[in-house]
Write a structure and sequence with these properties.
This protein is of the alpha+beta class. It has 25 helices and 27 strands.
């Protein structure tokens, strides 16, 4: 029986080649999309999960109420980790980790620049970054020790083994020497903490002693809790912990699982809601929908061609075939083509995986683990059964007498089901089209929005070496270079996801900013003119007025939050000093448009700046940068001149959104392609069954245009109904997505109109080929056909 059914399946596919091809392409494309999305989703869900202590790893978060909203952020006080480890018995290890930093290392007459961090001594005890040289408990216990990655060790010393005990020279604040106390394997691709070196936290406190103060928040704090710790009770216990050491704090504390930050990094009014998890859910749904669209094609084409198999069903039933046997046969056809499609899909994945990895910036691989094989087989089997279910139960239910007498009529249910499935397909396709348009417009808005500063043609690079000791003279020489419009020194890059430096506890006569956390920025006198940041009132720092270190500037958001009516000339108290406000700058964005502009205080401390910015004339970048490099090496011979464009770093803030936009475009195109394949098949069948009708109409004088309209209008009606159903869904879903941006576009009617027009044009283009073919056919041949 099995062999007989295989033969019947083969003959049926051979007899209906176009239908077989459409089903094969549709199902294989759907399965390939679903499997690619599965690989991506699995990687996303396993991000940061590789740590052996994952279940006990937590990050300390600060919570405050600002302007009536509960705000949660990850920057914490310098002494917090040490104090918590000392006072709280639930903690096995507390690890402070600094902002990431790029440093230039010298050894063996080699100079290499790498990115890394400062961390507490238990970094390698708590986190599973594998040490291949050295011991986890000793690696960062010495202030003069450094742990480097295997790649950095090979670059500097030829091998990891040779690196242990060697000395590295580097500069940060002052010239430093450290001894390599360990070498670790580079963090895996699914780690959010990526670094090439780790230096001692105690060393950073020695270099920057003000980080020891409780009002400064330069670190992230991570905890390894002991087995069996009740996290809810622990959160209640640490809520007011900081008040013990800093009574005027505005913050309470809570912890979140370390590995949850990647998917659930965003908070709304104190609740962890996430950002990337939204994309994981969205693409999981897209995978299911694309697979459903492919299954719908199979169902529609199978039921549409039912009349071609009526005699087969009637004869089988007459000679004793039960309905169960017929159902098994038709389900078998669905399962057979599903597994055949799986083979094609696997070839497609192998071919497309390098391109897919390039788009999503991952290292996904099709490793056939038992779990993956089981999932693939189960998904394919389910797809085959789903695709074959409706035609199986529909075809097997025919009355054999009515079939053989030719008295079988199309049921209203059959026609309705087929149309409903087409509507469903195009509804999903339309939602995806609208989504692509909205994402594109938001990305366009991000590129064109006035950020409050000019990011074009600005490069920045770390001072380092003699430049730090001779910053004014270096900037003076830099400005003389042809093609340089302006230059300045600044504490850190103005484009960043999270501001590295924050403070609070600002007071002024009669008031205290108890509920305000201020971003801080340290600049010289030329920083704002170089960046093109505008003043709202007062003046900027200026060398004409001598030392401005006892003065401050605020942004508009800070003044608004502080409710100071006449800020210029007012006195505030910060860091134990009375300081005068000399100016208010217009708001500018330091982070992505996901975040609202936060209050900011700006300090004049040229000696504490770590970076040089230079504004380059448009069209002269290459030659000007070459001259800047020559000047840089004049001050720092042998050092690497490593620069970045501010515009490129702004684009990097939206890497995830751009990838999502690209993926959405591809998957929307595939969904439309699969839908159109089904529509093409139905249009072909529709033209075939109405061959005689078309011939008679043409003999009676119907024009080709009339025939084309007759064959196309039914499909146009279905697409119009899909438009009506799709737009509310699209508006709801995209409005939710846009809520993740503090600054966003509005949804306009033309976006939906454009999507609807595109869908109609695509549908008409799909059916027009068969409509034209039928309309221009010779009516004599049509009337002679059986």
């Amino acid at each position: 029986m099995f062999k007989h059914n295989l033969l019947l399946i083969y003959r049926n596919f051979k007899h209906h080649k176009s239908t077989f091809f459409i089903n094969l392409v549709g199902l294989s494309t759907g399965l390939a999309c679903a499997l690619l999305i599965y690989l991506w989703v699995t990687d996303e869900l396993n991000f940061d999960k590789f740590h052996e202590n994952d279940a006990r790893l937590y990050q300390v978060m600060e919570v405050s109420t600002e302007d009536g909203n509960v705000t949660v952020h990850e920057s914490t006080q310098g002494p917090l980790a040490e104090a918590m480890a000392k006072d709280l018995p639930e903690i096995e290890a507390a690890i402070p980790i600094s902002f990431s930093i790029d440093l230039q290392f010298k050894a063996n007459n080699k100079v290499i620049k790498s990115g890394g961090l400062f961390a507490g001594k238990d970094l390698f005890k708590a986190f599973s970054f594998e040490l291949i040289q050295g011991k986890a408990e000793d690696a960062l216990s010495n202030k003069s020790g450094i742990v480097i990655s295997e790649n950095l060790a090979k670059s500097l010393f030829g091998s990891a083994k040779n690196a242990l005990g060697k000395t590295l020279d580097w500069e940060f604040i002052v010239h430093n020497q450290t001894i390599v106390t360990g070498v670790f394997k580079s963090p895996p691709h699914n780690s959010s903490m990526v670094f090439d070196f780790a230096l001692s936290y105690d060393l950073l406190l020695k270099l920057l002693p003000h980080f020891k103060e409780w009002q400064n928040e330069p670190f992230s704090t991570y905890l390894l809790l002991k087995e069996g710790t009740d996290v809810a009770k622990f959160n209640a216990k640490i809520a007011g912990f900081v008040k013990k050491y800093y009574p005027s704090t505005i913050f309470t504390l809570q912890v979140r699982p370390y590995s949850s930050a990647y998917l659930y990094g965003k908070y709304e009014n104190g609740i962890q809601v996430g950002t990337r998890i939204t994309y994981v859910k969205m693409f999981s749904v897209i995978a299911i929908l694309i697979l459903l669209i492919a299954c719908i094609n199979f169902m529609n084409l199978a039921t549409a061609r039912a009349s071609r198999r009526l005699k087969e069903v009637g004869i089988k039933k007459t000679v004793g075939a039960s309905r169960r046997i017929l159902i098994a046969q038709f389900l078998g056809e669905g399962v057979f083509i599903a597994f055949l499609s799986l083979l094609v899909a696997l070839f497609m994945i192998v071919a497309l995986l390098p391109l897919f990895n390039a788009i999503v910036d991952k290292q996904l691989a099709l490793n056939f683990s038992p779990q993956l094989i089981a999932l693939i087989v189960a998904t394919t089997l389910f797809t085959g059964l789903l695709a074959g279910s409706y035609p199986a139960f529909y075809l097997s239910g025919f009355n054999p007498v009515a079939v053989l007498k030719g008295k079988l009529k199309k049921s209203l249910g059959e026609i309705f089901a087929r149309k409903a499935l087409v509507i469903f397909q195009f509804t999903i396709s339309l939602v995806l089209i609208v989504s692509v348009l909205v994402v594109y417009r938001q990305m366009e808005y991000i590129q064109s929005k006035n950020l409050g500063y000019d990011k074009a043609n600005i490069i920045h690079f770390d001072k380092g070496g003699r430049i730090k000791e001779n910053t004014p003279s270096f900037i003076a020489e830099l400005k003389k270079i042809p093609g340089i419009e302006n230059a300045a020194a600044i504490q850190s890059n103005v484009v960043q996801k999270n501001m590295n430096s924050t403070t609070y506890g600002i007071t002024w006569p009669g008031k205290t900013a108890e509920n305000l956390n201020f971003n801080t920025l340290t600049v010289d006198a030329n920083a704002f003119s170089t960046l093109g940041i505008q003043m709202k009132e007062g003046r900027a720092f200026s060398e004409k007025f001598g030392a401005d270190e006892s003065t401050l500037m605020f942004n508009e958001s800070a003044i608004k939050a502080m409710a100071i009516e006449k800020p210029v000339g007012s006195t505030v108290r910060m860091w134990g000093e009375n300081m005068r406000i000399i100016g208010v700058i217009k708001d500018f964005h330091i982070s992505s448009l996901h975040e609202a502009i936060a209050p900011m205080v700006i300090r004049y401390r040229p000696d504490e700046t770590h970076m040089i910015m230079a504004k380059i004339s448009a069209g002269h970048a290459k030659e000007t940068i070459r001259r800047i490099e020559a000047l840089y090496k004049k001050y720092n011979p042998g050092n690497i001149f490593d620069y970045k464009f501010l515009d490129d770093e702004y684009q990097a803030l939206y890497v995830s959104e751009k990838r999502i936009s690209t993926l959405s475009t591809y998957f929307a195109a595939l969904a439309i392609l699969i839908s159109c394949l089904g529509l093409f098949g139905l249009a072909t069948f529709n033209a075939e069954v109405r061959t005689k009708e078309i011939g008679i109409r043409k003999v009676l004088g119907a024009s080709a245009a009339t025939v084309m309209l007759m064959l196309s209008k039914d499909f146009v009606k279905l697409v119009l109904l899909a438009i009506i159903l799709a737009f509310p869904l699209a508006a709801w879903s995209m409005n939710n997505w846009l809520q993740s941006f503090a600054y966003r576009i509005e949804l306009h009617w033309w976006m939906f109109a454009l999507a609807g027009i595109l869908a109609l044009l695509i549908a008409l283009a799909t059916v027009s080929f068969q409509a034209v073919k039928a309309a221009v056919a010779n009516p004599i041949k049509s009337l002679r056909s059986e």
